[in-house]
Amino acid sequence: MHERFRFKNKNEIIQKALDLGFELPFSDDISPLLVPASVEGITIPNRLVVQPMEGYDSEPDGSPSVLTRRRYLRYACGGSGIIWFEAVSVSADGCSNPKQLRIGLNNVSSFASLNDEIRQNAGQLGIRPFLVIQLTHSGRYSKPEGKPKPLVASRNKILDKVVPYILTDDDLKRIQDQYVVAAKAAASSGFDAIDLKACHGYLMIELLAAKSRQKSIYGGEDPADRFRFILETIERIEAEAPGIIVTTRLNISDRYQGGFGVDLKGQPDFTEPLLLVEELKKRGMRFMNLSMGSPYFNPYVSRPFDNPLPGQPVPEEHPLEGVIKMIKGTSIFQKRFPEIYFVGSAYSYLRQFAPNVGAAVIKNRDASFMGLGRSSFAYPSLPLDLIKNGKADPSKVCTTCSGCTRLIRNLSPGGCVIRDREIYGHELKKLIADGK
Ligand SMILES: Cc1cc2nc3c(=O)[nH]c(=O)nc-3n(C[C@H](O)[C@H](O)[C@H](O)COP(=O)(O)O)c2cc1C
Ligand code: SF4
Predict the structure, then answer these.
(1) pLDDT category of residue 350 using cuts at 50, 70 and 90
(2) What percentage of the chain exceeds 70 in pLDDT?
(3) Ligand 2 contacts CB of residue 399 (under 6 A)
């Protein structure tokens, strides 16, 4: 049964996990989070990752705005080893909202100057963060003018709300060209790596699951056909934008019927995701970020929370169970592919205990990095506090209230309404005043 976070000490949270039938990894010693790693020859100063978090605050041409820069400079001053830029669209019609960041050859300098500023600010702490940009096409969740304009890989009876446009193979080839252009722009902007986003219901993960796609080289029953789009895109980027590291944020299970990494009932089945990772490994990928679920269909899977969005049901699953399922799923991949660095997701529900759990996970080699999403909005300086004090400050943590999700769902700029109140508390007040 769902429950809000009320754990006062480590014993209570460990006991709750046991009551739910799970063992929660926990380490009083957080030092495993502070051990550097070398990814493809680049030293990453610690195991703490700012997860990609959309902020809906770009300039009209998709460039970072003053507010975008503020978000990223807060991360830079917080001490994380990796800053994983949010979903940045490769095309105007594949945007999730009118203010999604978008990258192309026209706005390389705006991303480059932000990257320079990030490195300068982090450099004052003696840190050189590894910078990843998440490239995406929003597919089914495209809303370029603020209204849904779904562009899907295939029909899905539980997700389709209207009769969607099914992208043709020619459309997909054009989209692939846009990925390659965006990748070239990202390489020129000084990113260390490009993430081809394949999670949370957007286009690339839909293609991986598109069994019902007819007469297409990018879909059908054979996984080799469904894997073709992402693998071809990687090969083209490696040929046309050489030197930049290519990675992916991959859903290892959508946890809904017709999704990727599920059986016929929509329960996790990692057979195909493991096969895909094997293919990625063969092509040299040594660094990946794993997630599960869809923020639109089963948000409690990808981001376990205390409060659902207004009007949405409270899920049955206990949030701690959601956190542990993500840890266990990631561990299966880390154990199978020890040579790959995997970033684990969905730790923010754990509040001040997240570093203790993340440290235990890394010590046990169940993942290589701990990713923090909402926590990075709320408490970007958590890594610095760990470096200085060896623990997190409970008064600064994310309360998993879903306020940031509520903001972006209503197309407002996204950030923490609780801990970064001056800007985002004000945005929430505006929404409430408008009756949203
Ligand atoms: C407001 C908001 C925006 C997000 N934007 C992205 C995104 O751009 N790309 C992505 O892969 N995940 C995105 N996520 C998911 C987070 O990266 C992360 O996986 C999720 O919040 C769970 O981690 P946490 O428990 O640390 O928050 C977003 C989540 C939220 C709440
Ligand atoms: S608004 Fe702040 S406290 Fe609430 S979920 Fe988002 S980051 Fe966490």
Answers:
(1) very high
(2) 100
(3) yes
What is the Å distance from ligand 2's center to 182 Cα?
A: 30
Name the residue type at position 420.
D
Interatomic CA distance for residues 309 and 108, integer angstroms: 36
Residue nearest to atom 4 of ligand 2 (CA): 401
Is the CB of 94 inside a 6 Å radius of any atom of ligand 2? no
Q: pLDDT, tens digit, for every residue of 58-80?
A: 999 999 999 999 999 999 999 99
For the CA of 197, the closest atom of ligand 1 is 11
Q: Give phi and psi for 386, each to the nearest 5.
A: -65, -40
pLDDT above 90 (res 189): yes
Helical spans, DSSP H, in 104-168: 108-123
User: Does 135 contact ligand 1 (Cβ within 6 A)?
Assistant: no
CA pair distance 405, 111, nearest whole angstrom:
25
Helix boundaries (H) for 262-417: 271-282, 299-302, 319-336, 354-363, 374-378, 382-389, 403-409
Side chain identity, residue 237: I
Give pLDDT, residue 116: 98
Alpha helices in 283-373 (DSSP H): 299-302, 319-336, 354-363
For a mutational test of ligand 2's pocket, the pick from 418, 424, 429, 432, i.e. the residue with the most ligand atoms closer than 8 A to its C-beta, is 418
Helices (H), 25-152: 66-76, 108-123
pLDDT at residue 434 greater than cutoff 90: no
Nearest CA among 116, 121, 109 for reference residue 73 = 121
Tell me, what's the pLDDT at 270? 98
Two structure tokens written together for 333: 């991949």
Fold for the domain defined by 10-401: TIM Barrel (3.20.20)
- Ligand 1 mean position to 339 CA, how many Å? 26
Q: Which two tokens stand for residue 217?
A: 């080289």
Q: Is the pLDDT of residue 96 over 90?
A: yes
Phi (first) and psi of residue 90, to 5 degrees = -90, -10
Distance between CA atoms of residues 373 and 51, nearest Å: 5
Going by CA atoms, what residue is nearest to atom 8 of ligand 2? 398
Task: State mean pLDDT over 293-318.
Answer: 96
